[in-house]
Amino acid sequence: AAAAGATPAGTPAAPPKPSAPKPQTYTKDKDDPFANVGRNDPCPCGSGLKYKKCHGRDQ
């Protein structure tokens, strides 16, 4: 008789499942004015500065 948890002879054991979780995907909000702003585009906040000099500095 086979021991509990053992596979019968000739049957390959199942490969271990990966333990790392899948990375979360980030979806941008379509209504977000900052979603698709290029670095050299005017900042959507209305300051008149380029995005990279205004709100783009934080990144």
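That was protein one. Protein two is written in the same sequence-then-structure order:
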Amino acid sequence: WCVAVQANRTKVFDGGEYGLPCVLVLKHLEPGERHDKSALNDVLRTHGVAT
């Protein structure tokens, strides 16, 4: 499992520059590891994601 958020990345094509949707993985969880809400909020805050 991973903690991930929606993001955009810029891609340049012949017709111009476009923002393509992608997934930004913030943290990989170890097999069997579970997150609690407070730990998840800490991960998101560390990466500047509003909670």
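The chain has one domain: 2-46. Keep this in mind for the problem set.
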